[in-house]
Amino acid sequence: MKQSNLCPKFEKAVTLLSQRWTALVIYQMLEAPQRFGEIQAAIGISGKVLSDRLKDMEQEGLIKRDVYPETPVVIEYSLTEKGRSLETVLRDIENWSQDWIEVDQQSNTGS
Amino acid sequence: MKQSNLCPKFEKAVTLLSQRWTALVIYQMLEAPQRFGEIQAAIGISGKVLSDRLKDMEQEGLIKRDVYPETPVVIEYSLTEKGRSLETVLRDIENWSQDWIEVDQQSNTGS
DNA sequence: TATTAAAAGTTACTTTATGTAACTAAGTTT
DNA sequence: AAACTTAGTTACATAAAGTAACTTTTAATA
Question: For residue B67, what pLDDT band results from cuts at 50, 70 and 90?
Answer without folding.
Answer: very high
